[in-house]
Design a protein that fits this description.
By secondary structure, this protein is an alpha+beta fold. Helix content is about 50%, strand content about 5%.
Length: about 500
């Protein structure tokens, strides 16, 4: 839906005219110096910039079309806000890996300010970011990320998930909440030192708020708040997102207060305990980043990122297995030859299961979960391919353009596990596989997510064969994603028929 169509559909002439005048004043005041040396791009219109060229519900599709015309580096005006788009594997690898320092800052925006106001792991910068990321990676390793102890946590969560699927007796059900609960419980056991029972009302409320926050962050209303914050605030576009964020932080704050009362340096059960202990150790320092706001935001970053993307990928996986039953069958045949009946999959099995590994990678590539990446900014003036990118400009390393780069993938718009297999059926890594982003800002939980995806996906296909509900053919299954910051499958029902 275009910017103009969005407003015309929602405002009468008088309100629309008033908004136009307000936007014109904002645009005029926001005009900066000449952008002659900046990357090329479409001519911006007064007030709206290039928003007339974007589908606000699916901006990644519009950006793919624009990249075909303007190339690897181009400038877009989101209203009065100039943004540089990096499109394609080569330019994004150059920017985020080869020149990591030049593109290593996190962009600021009104939406990000709502979420963290520059605190935590994902949206912070400078020494604060280095401190939070270093502590988080160290703590995650202490709690077994990439080790057998986390593998056991995932396996322990896989068993009740299988039983919950089995309880539907092969009848149609929506697996969304069950999958989210299982995945979230893994990160909850690391953050809070405990898991929640499925159906727990508080737990379900938290997961639903995470779900809704991810959807809201990519809706036209919130995007417009980002581009025109004064107008968005006036019309209240951001209020629901603010409320969800406040409620999630209140929950984490209550957990941290409870843990502080019982804190035992010899019995650290989770990330919050480790953070509180670090706070105590830092009390004598003149300057420390281990304050309460960084605790809330870091825990929320882990909780949200550790739930949303992995669970969404698994939901895409089940939908795609229903859509392509011949691929599902080949995965199950490999499972039967590599894992003994009655045994849960292990991470060690992955190296002997190239086809399953290829399918999981292709689900991530095809699913394109975080299409726009999380924007960066430049700490100084930067020259890239002969163009000036001014200090502080927002830069979007456009991940869709990498995962669907036609110079890197044989059939970028098709679901094709052969993208990750050689002529002998062996798994091959692909440099253009970047669902976790790359460089110094790559996802801190990548190792955990990879373990979860393999163990959950393999365990579910070991236990069940997934079919569409009666009366629904595989051709009827919709692969068009819903609207949101992350690309989630359109809600669907599945039938999980036990394999034994």
């Amino acid at each position: 839906m275009s910017f103009i169509a969005y407003f015309l559909a929602r405002a009468d002439v008088l309100v629309y005219f008033s908004i136009f005048i307000a936007l014109f004043i904002y645009w005029k005041n926001g005009i900066k110096k000449s952008t002659a040396k900046m990357p090329p791009g479409p001519m911006p219109l007064p007030v709206i910039g290039n928003l007339n060229l974007l589908d606000l519900e699916r901006p990644h599709e519009s950006l793919m079309q624009l990249s075909e015309k303007y190339g690897e580096v181009f400038t877009l005006h989101f209203g009065p806000k100039k943004t540089v788009i990096l499109a394609g594997y080569k330019i994004i690898k150059e920017a985020l890996v080869t020149r990591a320092e030049d593109f290593g800052e996190r962009a600021t925006s009104p939406v990000f300010d709502i979420v963290s106001n520059g605190h935590g792991i994902i949206f912070s910068n400078g020494e604060q970011w280095k401190s939070m990321r270093r502590f988080t990676l160290s703590t995650l390793r202490d709690f077994g990320m990439g080790k057998k102890s986390v593998e056991a946590r995932i396996q322990d969560e896989l068993m009740p998930l299988i039983e919950s699927f089995r309880s539907h007796n092969g009848k149609p059900f929506n697996a969304h909440m069950l999958i989210n609960s299982a995945v979230s419980n893994v990160i909850c056991s690391i953050i809070f030192g405990k898991r929640f029972e499925y159906g727990d009302s508080t737990f379900e409320k938290l997961i639903k708020m995470l779900d809704e926050s991810a959807k809201l962050a990519g809706t036209p209303k919130v995007l417009l708040y980002n581009y025109y914050p004064f107008l968005g605030s006036l019309l209240g576009f951001h209020r629901k997102l603010m409320q969800y964020n406040k409620d999630l932080k209140n929950f984490i704050s209550q957990c941290s207060m409870n843990r502080r009362l019982d804190l035992d340096a010899n019995d650290i059960t989770g990330y919050i305990d480790a953070y509180l202990l670090k706070q105590e150790q830092e009390t004598t320092k003149a300057q420390t980043y281990f304050n309460e706001e960084n605790l809330l935001c870091s825990a929320l970053d882990l909780f949200g990122a550790g739930t949303e993307t992995t669970s969404t990928t698994i939901r895409w996986g089940i939908l795609l297995m229903m859509k392509y039953p011949e691929i599902q069958k080949k995965v199950q045949e490999e499972i039967k030859t590599r894992i003994k009946p009655g045994q849960l999959p292990t991470v060690e099995d992955r190296k002997n299961m190239p086809y399953t590994d290829a399918v999981i990678h292709e689900i991530q590539r095809f699913g394109n979960i975080v299409p726009l990446n999380v924007p960066r900014s430049t700490p100084t003036d930067v020259y890239l391919r002969g163009y000036l990118i001014p200090k502080g400009i927002e830069v979007v390393p456009f991940l869709t353009s990498v995962l669907y780069d036609k110079t890197q993938w044989k059939t970028p718009y098709d679901f094709n596990p052969n993208h990750f297999l050689d002529e002998n059926g062996k798994f091959v890594k692909h440099d253009a596989f970047m669902p976790f982003s790359v460089g110094r800002r790559a996802c801190a939980g990548e190792a955990l997510a990879k373990m979860e995806l393999f163990l959950f996906f393999t365990g579910l296909l070991q236990a069940f064969t997934f079919y569409p509900p009666p009366g629904v053919s595989r051709e009827d299954l919709n692969l068009k994603p819903g609207v949101g910051f992350t690309l989630v499958p359109t809600p669907y029902m599945t039938c999980a028929k036990p394999n034994y």
